[in-house]
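#struct-queue
[09:14] JT: dropping the first one here, sequence first, then the structure tokens:
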Amino acid sequence: MATHLFCDGVQRRDFLRVGALTGMGIGMGLSRFLAMGKEGAVNPSAKAKAGILIRLVGGPSHMDSFDLKPDAPETHRGEFKETATNVPGMRICEHMPKLAKCADKYVILRGVSHTLAAHNLGTLYMMTGNRPVPSLRYPTYGAVMSREKGSSPEMPAFVAIPNQGDYPTGYLGVEYGPFDTGAAPRAGVRMEVRGLALRNGVTLEDVDRRQNLIKKYDQAFGEFAKEDKVLSGMDEFSSKAYAMMRSTKAREAFDLSRESEAVVNLFDKQDFSQSCLLATRLVEAGVRFVTLNLGGWDTHNGNFPSLKTRLLPQLDAGLSGLLLALHAKGLLDSTAVLVTGEFGRTPKINQRAGRDHYPRAMFCVMAGGGMKGGQVIGASDAKGEGPKDKAITPDDVAASYFNALGVDYAKEYNTPTGRPVMIVRNGNVIPQLF
């Protein structure tokens, strides 16, 4: 999403930057989507250096995945059976056999609960750890990590595969937003990310000439350019895009063909698995935060065939591969992983053999970042209708996730109007995780 549009007051200098890139066939991937946050203060006690968020878009059924209720009434329990994992007493759905074999690598949170049954509001809550309010837009996990941790000169701080969608950086501003890849990688095919591949005969010398032109234009603005926040933001933006275009490291990070055969074999050939593989490479190359999407979980109709034949196998292959690949690369302890939808689904099966929106009970999966794998924290009641005892809130999940990432979740930022706001207002770290 563009920082400026012509009819919304685009600066002439901004247009020169955009035109200098798009006119060369380089594309809008870097100039439009890439954001470079300033180097943040890195907490010396940080357990993780990077994070990966997997969004199960649509709201997955807790009752048919990580929180089955085999003793519930037939109207609730569903068609699937539990299967044992490699952790005694920890059981998940039979259609996730690969995740069953690596359950020691992750934690299941059950009895996660809130009250927002709309997709957009539930997503905003689960991606920020703050209940949405009309008066303020809170920053997503990736935006906070981009601000707090910064990035290397050659890599973006925050990447979304294939995109972040309409979920904002909030009051932090677009400079902390993600670089959207625009597409999912494909197995056995070299990925050409917008902005990294030079096409139509364009050479690096052409890029250098255009960059020199921009520098001369910058000099003409003098001190005015330094003082103007929009222009100075574009300076960082363009410099990062330029550095990545010239960077062999950046291009190689997005090239799955360079991965070892042993790691490639941990994944299947589907888009989600290949996106998970790419996420491990990006973290390895220095990206601070990666967001992945796996959609299709809005199963009001035909819940069971959709889960059995498509959704659960995709999640099983991709997430197990991601955890095992991070472990094989020695990155699991330094990478905090969070898997979540926007809510769960109704425990009672509807008349269309589906389940409807249900925020009162859902699950999250967490891994890495110093969190203790191989455990279940929290519980839902006998019918999966709500927390059995104390609820785990999205705020608690966020506080715990930021804790694993080495970010002080109680830190205050100032909004553009000067209002002080905590990163997470109401959450507390879940002590059993650590």
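[09:21] JT: and here's the second one, same format:
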Amino acid sequence: MDRIQAMQIFTRVAEAGSFVRAAETLSLPSSTVTSTIKSLEKYLQVRLLNRTTRRVSLTPEGMQYLAQCREIISLIEHTEASLTASVKRPQGRLRVDMPSGIAHSIVMPNLKDFYRSYPDIYLMIGVSDRQVDLVQEGVDCVIRTGELSNSTLVARPLGRFRWVTCASPEYLRKNGVPQSPDELSKHRAIHYFSGQTRRANEMRFLRDTETLSVPVRGEVAVNETGLYIKMCLEGFGLVQLAEAIVSEHLRDGRLIEVLADWQPSSVPVTLLYPHQRFLSPVVRSFADWIARLI
């Protein structure tokens, strides 16, 4: 027996004072209404209704049970309505971790737009280029770039980053503009290292189907995108990173793209979150929003 449905049927019978009228308003057969009330009384081991040929009335126990049923049904309806509203207007805390380049160059410039759409979401933005453990660190979702290793997390592709090779005008004035990867032996790069990087001193290129990895000397290596960009702006060497991350610097001429015919391979951008049957409206809203920006 569905006890919630039985409560709803009982409430309707009590309010209508008739099995037949209750059945009509519920679009149920009269026999279903009658058998449900009998099963409910048997389950509760108490008579809820007095039956006559003309009318149905409540017993004292039935009056007490009716008041409680109304309260329970009202609470269920309120809960369902609030959840439906939360889907239409998501609210709550969201902890999301992302690489610093995405945080500074993509999320931050568009954050006011996010809050115009989702004013009731409290964002906790973790900024780091390292991999985080979602479960251990209490993170709802993460944004990662690059190919993914095997994972139990759910992956939602957000798009791909076009990568570019670039340098500051000051660096290019002093060292010249490389015309092909072969000329990189005369140049220096700012090296980037991380837990996944095997050889931080290489620059990788793709033209048509030809791939090329070129060692480039350098004076410094970093493991944080913001510092990587800053050192490039200061003229320490060539860098390779997502065009979207440095688009503003490229537009205003503070950085200049080189070797455009030999672009690095594009890099996938993915949102990861723990496996769950129903995705939180808060996570879904953020995922839909960030996907439009990448």
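[09:30] RK: nice, looked through the second one.
[09:31] RK: The mean pLDDT is 87.
[09:31] JT: good to know. Residues 18 and 34 are 10 Å apart (CA to CA).
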